[in-house]
Amino acid sequence: MAALTSGFMPLLSVFGKPPSSRFAMNPGLVSYNNLPSSRSPITAGLKNVATKCSKATNASSDATSEVIRHFDPSVWDGHDFTSASSNHLIDERKLKELKKEVKTMFSLAAADSFRELDLIDKIQRLGVAYHFEDEIEHILQRTNNDDYTHFFDQNIFKNEHADLYYVSLRFRLLRQAGYYVSTDVFKNFKDEKGEFQANLASDVQTMLSLFEASYLGFRGEDIMDEAMAFSTKHLNSMLTSLSFPLALQVQNALMMPLQRIPERVYARYYIPIYEQEISQNKTLMEFAKLDFNSVQLLHRNEINEVQSWWKRMNIRSKLQYDVRDRVVEAYAIINNIYFEPKFSQARIHLAKLWVIITLIDDTYDVFGNIDELKQLCDAFQRWDANCTNHLSDAMKLVFLEVLNFFNDIETSMIKAGNVAGVPFFKKE
Questions:
Q1: Are the beta carbons of 13 and 203 closer than 8 angstroms?
Q2: For the chain, how many helices (H) and strands (E)?
Q3: Per-residue pLDDT for 5 more than 50?
Q4: Neighbours of 5 (CB within 10 A)
Q5: Deepest of 99, 117, 274, 331, by most Cβ within 10 A of its Cβ?
Q6: What residue stretch is flagged as signal peptide (predicted)?
Q7: Bridge-partner residues for 67, per DSSP?
Q8: Domain membership of residue 366 as a residue range
Q9: How confident is the model at residue 173 (pLDDT cuts 50, 70, 90)?
């Protein structure tokens, strides 16, 4: 099974590398020890399990295990993903006009380094940064080439709070974009005892900026651990005295830090908060809301397409054992990697791939006996639809559905003029 699964990787690569984002910087940011076992969904999802296995013999592909296992049904059964979005007509012309207006904001902020980074921060939080990747990369590259002294010499800061706010913002934006930034600059905000200066804790925005930056520390960077402890302590102490919307932003940051929440989920939460800010830019606000609705409508249509494909396959009614219906979950996982509209076809294909892998996984884990599974593995190695006579009915059905899936992907990608990775998969 491991060899089979590893063969999917070349197929994934044909869709290209995910766009740079705050999730792509530091593999150490994710603690895999905290993730549930890959076996958890199966065990948790099983109910009314009754297993009756045939006695072990020398034999035969005819020998099967009589297995009755029922997974929990999909929580999305009966949910219509088009109903909530059908009433929202997207004004594409207005969207393009607003995009042009937002784009001019970069040139207007060019003379002020702080304004540039603050604009990037707002655009990223609102979920529209994918429209301005070139502009953002240009600014961050230039920012990385300049040292902190360059910015401090501009006298744009009035006090040490603003200094730390800016330093933390610069540090976070650069690190999450893949640039290495030294942590030494944070030493400027420590007292003679080697602790962060107590007076810095009086400004909530400064603490929030430091808190979010602290999650981009590498292992062994003790000062970032200290920054996290310092900012967390003071944000918690200030929380009860804050008013909306700042109170909500701080509360959510403490529960789910910026680096640990999918971009689209964060945008959905942040848009109403930004809308309540006195300093909000109305053009940027309107653009973010229109864009969110437009992208959400696309995502809903994609889920419906994958669900329709799964229903047409109707494999659960054809097999003598149960398999998981996790179409929406599969799509959600892929959507968290590629949410941009230009990756629409990739999301659909990869969501279907995830469903196919789940089908194979349940076949190996739930139903097939060792003889049947060896024969299925052998069939995958040969990859020939004409050589299935030795397979049991269930194994033949699974094998042919897998072949059909990859053939369909190859056909659709070639038709669209794209490079298909299926030959690499077959070779693996």
A1: no
A2: 19, 2
A3: no
A4: 11
A5: 331
A6: none
A7: 51
A8: 2-72+314-427
A9: very high
- Dihedrals phi, psi of 190, to nearest 5 degrees: -105, 155
Cβ neighbours of 334 (radius 10 Å):
23
CB atoms within 10 A of CB 425: 20
Residue type, 393: D
Residue 78's contacts (CB-CB under 8 Å, 6 or more residues apart) are none
Cα–Cα nearest to 211, from 234, 232, 196: 232
Return all residues near 263 (Cβ < 8 A) that are at least 6 apart: 21, 22, 23, 124, 127, 336, 339
- List the beta bridge partners of residue 46: 71
- Residue 349 neighbours by CB under 8 Å, 6+ apart: 15, 409, 412, 413
Quick one: 133 and 47 in the same domain?
Answer: no
- Alpha helices (H) in 109-244, listed in sequence order: 113-125, 133-145, 148-152, 160-176, 204-214, 222-238
**Tens-digit pLDDT profile for residues 254-293:** 999 999 999 999 999 999 999 999 899 999 999 999 999 9
Does any domain span residue 100? Answer: no
Q: Are residues 343 and 273 in the same domain?
A: no
Angle (CA) 188-193-196 rounded to 5° is: 45
Q: Are residues 152 and 274 in the same domain?
A: yes
Distance CA 203, CA 234 (A): 9
Confidence of residue 425 (pLDDT cuts 50, 70, 90): low
Q: Is residue 105 scored above 60 in pLDDT?
A: yes
Is residue 51 predicted with pLDDT exceeding 60? no
Reported as a pLDDT band with limits 50, 70 and 90, residue 413 is confident
Residue with tokens 């669900």: 307
At 110, phi and psi to the nearest 5?
A: -60, -30
Residues 319-367 have pLDDT tens digits of 888 899 999 999 999 999 989 999 999 999 999 999 999 999 999 988 7
% residues pLDDT > 90 (the chain): 60
Whole-angstrom Cα distance, residue 62 to residue 269? 55
